[in-house]
Amino acid sequence: MSKRPDIQSLIDEIAEAVKPEFGKGKVADYIPALARIPGDRFAMAVCAVDGSEWRTGEALRSFSIQSISKVFTLLLALETIPPDELWERVGREPSGTPFNSLMQLENERGIPRNPFINSGAIVVTDAIAAHSASPVPHLMNMVRKLAGNPGIIIDEEVARSEEDHGHRNAAIAHFLKSHGNLRAEAHRVLHLYFRQCAIAMSAMDLARAFLPLANEGVVPSSGEQRFPALRVKRVNSLLLTCGLYDGVGNFAFRVGIPAKSGVGGGIVGIIPGKYSICVWSPELDELGNSHVGTAALELFTRKTGLSIF
Ligand code: GLN
After folding, report:
1. Would you state the pLDDT for residue 214?
2. Residue 217 beta carbon below 6 angstroms from any ligand 1 atom
3. What is the pLDDT of residue 267?
C-alpha cells in the first residue's frame, strides 16, 4: 500500500505516541448516539497530491463528521450562489466564542462571524436550500464524488438525535430568521443542518475528499480542476482562521495548518501542495476539538517539519 514508508512509519509511531493522551478529553455527550462511542478509538489517514495514501488505526471505520460538514456546504454554496451574495450574510473573521454561541450574534445583529460556527453554517445551509429543490442529495452527491465512495450515508439515528436535542441550534435559526438572515423556514433549514452534521465518513474518506484543497483545487487522480484555485486559497484561509472555533489560535500555534474539526472527534488538515490528513479520536477538549487528534497532528507537523509557516 505504502509508496513512502517514512509516512507509514511516522503515523504508526504517532498512534503509539499519543496513547498517554487518552482519558484526558471527554466524548461528546449532547446526544446519546455520540455519547456511547468508546473514547479510545484512533485513526489517521494521509493522502498525498501524487496519489499516495497511508493509514493507521481504524481509518476505514465511519464516524459522525459533524462540523466538518460545514466545509462541504461552504464549497457547495460557493459554486451554487454568487459569492458576494453569501458574504453579505456571513462574515470571515474568527469568532473567539464557542461554536454554538448566541451572544455575538445578538451584538452583531444576526450576521454570523464566519461560516464555520453554527450560526454561519446555518446561513450557508439556508443559501444552498434556497437554490436547490433537493439540497441533501445535492450535498451527498458532492461528498461521495469527492471521497470516491458512493457508499457514504447519513446516520439517521444521529440525525434524529440532533433534531430531538438541537434546542440551541433552533434558537440560533430562529434568531437569524428574526434578523431577516434566513430565507427558508427555520425548521426546514434545521432539518438540513442536522442531516449534514450526521453524515458518516471514515478518516480515509475525509482525507480523500479534502485532497483537492491541498492541490489548488485539482483532483490528483483525474486531473480535474474541481474547484478554482482562488476559492481553495480562500477556503484554506478561512480554515486557518476559523476552523477550530475559539481554539483556532492555539491550534495554529501548535500545528500550523488549515484544518476543520467536528464534535464527532474528527479533524481534517491541509498541508498545501503536499497532503490532506484526517485524524479521528472522539475525546474532545473543553472547546469541542479532538484532544488526541490535535496532539497527533502536532506530532505530524513537528516530525515532518511541514506546516504552512
Ligand atoms: N451537531 C453539532 C452542533 O450543531 C455540530 C457542532 C460541532 O461539530 N462543533 O452543535
Report:
1. 98
2. no
3. 98
Question: CATH 3.40.710.10 residue ranges in the chain?
Answer: 7-64+200-304, 67-197
What CATH class does 7-64+200-304 carry? alpha beta
- Ligand 1 atom nearest to 193, measured from its CA: 4
pTM of the entire structure? 0.97
CB burial of 177-210 (b: ≥16 within 10 Å; e: otherwise) equals beeebbebebebbbbbbbbbbbbbbbbbbbbbbb
CB of 162 sitting under 6 A from ligand 1: yes
Q: How many whole angstroms from 265 Cα to the centroid of ligand 1?
A: 11
Residue 264 has what pLDDT? 98
pLDDT digits 0-9 by tens, 201-218? 999 999 999 999 999 999
Neighbouring CB atoms inside 10 A of 236's CB total: 20
SS3 content of the chain, % helix, strand, coil (to 5): 50, 15, 35
Testing ligand 1's pocket by substitution, the residue of 29, 69, 99 carrying the most ligand atoms inside 8 A of its CB is 99
Whether 34 is in the pocket of ligand 1, judged by its Cβ within 6 Å, is no
Name the CATH architecture for the domain at 67-197. Answer: 3-Layer(aba) Sandwich (3.40)
Element housing 48 (H / E):
strand 43-48
For residue 2, what pLDDT is reported? 40
Q: What is the pLDDT of residue 45?
A: 98
Q: Quick check: CB of 100 below 6 Å from ligand 1?
A: yes
Q: Which residues are catalytic?
A: 67, 70, 193, 245, 263
- Which segments of the chain have a pLDDT < 50? 1-3, 5
Q: How far is CA 288 from the centre of its chain?
A: 12
Task: Of 213, 144, 207, give the one whose Cα is nearest residue 7.
Answer: 207
State the Cα–Cα distance between residues 153 and 140, nearest whole angstrom: 8
